[in-house]
Amino acid sequence: MSQIQTNRKVYLQDKPRHVAREEFINNVTLTPEIENIRTNKALGRVTALPIFANISTPHYHASAMDGIAVRAENTYEAHEQRPLHLKKDSDFKYVDTGNPIPNEFNAVIIVEELQEIDAETVEIIVPATPWQNIRPVGEDVVCGEMILPQGHTLRPADLGALLAGGVQELPVVKKPKVAILPTGNELRQPGAPLEPGNIIEFNGTVFAGFVEEWGGDPLLSDITVDDPDHIRTAIEKGAEEADVIIINAGSSAGSKDYTYHVINELGEVYTHGIATRPGKPVILGEVKGKPIIGVPGYPVSAYLALEWFLRPLLYHYQGIQEPERETLKVRLGRRVVSNMGAEDFVRMNVGYVNGEFIANPLTRAAGVTMSMVRADGVLVVPPDSLGLEQGEEVEVELYKPVDALKKAVLFTGSHDLTIDIVSSLLRRRDVNRQVISSHVGSLAGLMAIRKGEAHVTGVHLLDPETETYNVPYIEKYLAGQQVVHIPFLKREQGWIVPKGNPLSINKIDDIVEKGGAYVNRQRGAGTRILFDSLLKQHSLTSEQIQGYEREMFSHLSVAAEVKEKENSVGLGVYSAAQTMGLDFIPVADENYDLVMTNSFYESDAGQQLMEVIRSTEFKQQVERLGGYKVVEAIKPNFFNE
Amino acid sequence: MSQIQTNRKVYLQDKPRHVAREEFINNVTLTPEIENIRTNKALGRVTALPIFANISTPHYHASAMDGIAVRAENTYEAHEQRPLHLKKDSDFKYVDTGNPIPNEFNAVIIVEELQEIDAETVEIIVPATPWQNIRPVGEDVVCGEMILPQGHTLRPADLGALLAGGVQELPVVKKPKVAILPTGNELRQPGAPLEPGNIIEFNGTVFAGFVEEWGGDPLLSDITVDDPDHIRTAIEKGAEEADVIIINAGSSAGSKDYTYHVINELGEVYTHGIATRPGKPVILGEVKGKPIIGVPGYPVSAYLALEWFLRPLLYHYQGIQEPERETLKVRLGRRVVSNMGAEDFVRMNVGYVNGEFIANPLTRAAGVTMSMVRADGVLVVPPDSLGLEQGEEVEVELYKPVDALKKAVLFTGSHDLTIDIVSSLLRRRDVNRQVISSHVGSLAGLMAIRKGEAHVTGVHLLDPETETYNVPYIEKYLAGQQVVHIPFLKREQGWIVPKGNPLSINKIDDIVEKGGAYVNRQRGAGTRILFDSLLKQHSLTSEQIQGYEREMFSHLSVAAEVKEKENSVGLGVYSAAQTMGLDFIPVADENYDLVMTNSFYESDAGQQLMEVIRSTEFKQQVERLGGYKVVEAIKPNFFNE
Lengths: 641, 641
Known about the structure:
The structure is a homodimer. Chain A is of the alpha+beta class. Chain A is built from 18 helices and 40 strands. In chain A, the strands form twelve sheets. In chain A, strands 31, 34, 35, 36, 37, 38, 39 and 40 form an eight-stranded mixed β-sheet that branches. Chain A has a six-stranded mixed β-sheet with strand order 16-13-17-21-20-18, with helices on both faces. At the A-B interface, strand 11, helix 2, strand 15, helix 3 and helix 6 of A face strand 11, helix 2, strand 15, helix 3 and helix 6 of B. Chains A, B: GO terms for molecular function: metal ion binding; molybdopterin molybdotransferase activity.
């Protein structure tokens, strides 16, 4: 029977993150265990005690070279003018590298310095010095010597030194076990059928990955339903089996958020709510002597919370230093707004354009896992800041090596599926080249080139007056700039409608007349400009179009939206309709072209990109998508050269 | 029957390393295989193809908050002055975070902005905007979108995005299998009994560790004897089972080095010998379509050869970028000599003293695995250089993070086993503190302090005139410098002799009279100064002492050497004798003291160190060693303050 008063109102704290962390690490009980493991299985493990050598290596005086062992004192008279003859066995013995030096000798003369006179005699002309070319006992490791201190993470060469020191088994810190408890009625295991309202349980897999990377041993549980009794049982089981417990989610203060109440009942809550965005509804506590972290359900919030609280805990448990992320000074390409009173964690793209690093914020929605996939780093805006201005220099914590960022190709512009193909082929040609693409639409793409925030953009901008594509826009928006215009693809735009075209949409008037719900694109998108010029041609106004105000940011998003509603219609490319299993009614052929800075065009990366888009393989893959015609012989146009 | 002409003279090439590497990577056949694995098992693996989403997430329009779903258009009149009442079901429905938005609604008002009037009615005072607080279909991942490009190493958050995109299984690059073939009659498996001439086979374990770290799957074979037929069979088996073969050793050009001949017979040799030191006798070739690397037997040479040739091969195979090591500009504490014509790879210690990074070379013997354990980085001296001068600024490739180097405590001076205890306890107190110790003797330790190359030194220097320890030397060698002298330990020095003291050594005269072979320490070592003053006291000369010229660098090395020879005798501390199971005849009690720079003494690290050496735990551990008396109340003496 649940004793929990879930109707009691709980308010979240606004505890500074560092205070919460210090309290947590200092309060919780941590009793690291030691286990003995075989040295050859110990890669990456952490020594629990200092390790001393059991034997010396070499364990005998060993010849360091192929040659003869001699007594140095007997060779002192050797001279180029007075060669010295030595007799086998009495004066010398042959030794190979690694052979023991016979007791009566104390030096080795290498084979290249010998003249063999006969089977029993060699001649030398240079005297030996005592102990030359001999590896004395313990040259490498001396018995009793400390090979490694405690708290050392074992690298391959360490294993060699341990085995050389006769250590076949050693005490290491047992990997801390971390129980991961996904909770929620709406959760379904990956692959299970999904109803509206169901969510795939993927956080657990991500958490397990973090635990592994941070040296722990993850125990991922089945899904627990939103019920205090079930949650209590799961936590109690976790406390028995593991050293640390992670529970996801129900960590906030809503009517169905039981986590706080259960932890409070079973143990102690140190913190409920921290002053960060995202990541606020975090619970830090202890249950039956085991640290427990309640993390929010939104993936990005959860990942950050684990990094802030679980990562230091696991490193602390293992007695090793928490690695620090590389940081980089960058210039802000856009303004970043922030609320007073909370630390903001803004995922950023970082690119290297015209000799400087430019950073732009990614979406800040805490539910968007792709923002973590795409992020090159994170910008931490302190609680006392209202934000940072465009052009300001800020420091970003990096998720990728600087070198990779420096070599990335920044594509910012209209979304087209062929850019993914370019990206793949470029990568195959040169593993260092990665295309980082952001889908902002054609006009914003041109602006990114103008502001030095991108190397390449993709545009399809119809000029209604001249009825030509792209060039009028380049002349207007990039006036005076050295850019290269690459005629790239012809592609079909058309109406994207549900399978079977239930409203029988064939032209723009049908949308108004048949009550279609239109799925629009954002301002500045080429498709939006095309739609607006169709409206004008047909003497329609945007007010007549239901749904005109809402904006989608890509062809695929339009198609995904159309799939949701029987009476909907969008404008977009064939491949997007096909991917979603929708119908497509062609409207116009348009020119989707690339525009790049002259300096990028002339760089290695630019020339590699040109090779890719001229390759047969690229053309074949594009034509397989359908709805495209490639430009057969691509001829760049140079502006303002 | 062997067809191999091992008597044909083979000469090693001197091919530049980069040339050999380019040729090798470009010549060998690499056919990476693809395997499909479960997403939840894919951490750290590399995508073999671009991965596209199978479903959208969310797959329905989901509420982003707890609240009510409404039709935005119906709320436009709400105002603080004119509250609007909404009726349940007709005007709104309650939704929790993650719930689907009913088809008739298009916005969510959060619970905090509602006033519940009765069970059927809520009041609002702010209008909703369309799509507010809704996560539209595909907000995170849109079906058909490329989630990851090929050649991407999977991080925890990537697994989340894949599962969110309905990807439960994905194509990754199969881990390249690397056959590791240890060869040599002298090799014995770790733990097997050792005769003189036997060597523990530990290279294979180290190689396997490297292969794992570089993304491969190591197949470590049993030991193959030095016989062309056996080697041929082992290589043929490796070529069948693995994608790459590593054979160790026999890669040089000696009479028993069969590797070159066998590879030449079975396939092709591209390179035999590169212009590096160490690492010269490397073989690069191909056998039955599989790349093969013959690496030298000396561990350091072998590790470097694998890094130069196997590492790029494995990364190339996987289609990912080879990570670059961090580099650091450092000042050379000592001169580094180098030979023309070969690249020199000098393992270095790097320390941060008085606000700058100072680097000193470690031993350059290629057989010393401990030099790889101790190294903080490597200095590459180009082939056209004769060496680098003390004080020169050079760039070092780092094996450790800069941060760890910055926090390390540099101990340079006389070797004493208690320094290992200090190191362990300091580490336990603060995981960031590591003691990097080099055993150079007392006088060299004082010089290291003088030159700003160390934070702390340990000295036991007898001034024969005043018969006092250490202070006269500090006054002489550190004149004018702000240093702190810490009276630390009294320790016994004595004769270290074989068990049972076969020569009955009791005083220094016995060594001369009974024909003892003396094991001496290096110039500047406190023990050497003690021995020299004993000689003088007893009116003996160094010429009368057999073995006086040869120098050992630590107490343990002296003891290890004594253990080798029935008639030998050394001078050293009790614990060294005990570790090696030798007898110990006390000679003198001496003062082993610490000297540190004033700035280090005042730093956090210095104060932590003082706490450690004053702790009960330290005193207990030291007294357990035997032969020591700790200074009860340590009182620092300040010089030139």
